[in-house]
Amino acid sequence: MLLVILYKILLVDKYYVVDAGFRNTKGYLAPYKGLQPQNSKELFNYRHSSLRNVIERTFGAWKNRIRILKQGMNHYDIDTQVKIVIACAVLRNYLREYQSIDEIFMVYEYENIVVDDIDQQMAQSNNVGSSSRSHDREMQVQREEIVCTMWENYIKD
């Protein structure tokens, strides 16, 4: 759930950046499945995966540093959860600016670690069958718009 909250904060259009285990439906931006990187969809998948990796490592570090995230926030309403996540980001930025070395954050920033996130599995189970076909189409269109823009910018450079 924590990853989902961060995704909503980071993305202007308020949808979750999820892995291929989720359906691409309203509020859930999933990657394309089974593609080799050679076109716009593959570029999207690569960047999508990179973003998820950064977010998962960030939450891994936060959970090791900030107790409330490790204990869980399910008993707080969603607005309070969002505020807690924002406060964690502010605290992290403050520590980065004014503390010369923070070993916990350094481990997550510089090592290729895999973060096992049970919250992600819980969110995945909540997504099954939660959407109508029209919402699915809306999210398909939104994903295609992102892919086209991303690809056009990529081939310009």
Automatic annotation (TrEMBL):
Organism domain of life: Eukaryota
InterPro entries in the cross-refs: HARBI1-like (IPR045249), HARBI1_dom (IPR027806)
Subcellular location: Nucleus
Keywords: Hydrolase, Metal-binding, Nuclease, Nucleus, Signal
One Pfam family linked to the record: DDE_Tnp_4
Gene Ontology terms: cellular component: nucleus
Single annotated GO MF: nuclease activity
Signal sequence region: 1-20
Cofactor or coenzyme needed: a divalent metal cation
Keyword Nucleus: yes
Start and end residues of each DDE Tnp4 domain: 13-93
Entry annotated with the keyword Signal: yes
Family: Belongs to the HARBI1 family.
Protein name: DDE Tnp4 domain-containing protein
Species whose genome carries this gene: Solanum pinnatisectum (tansyleaf nightshade)
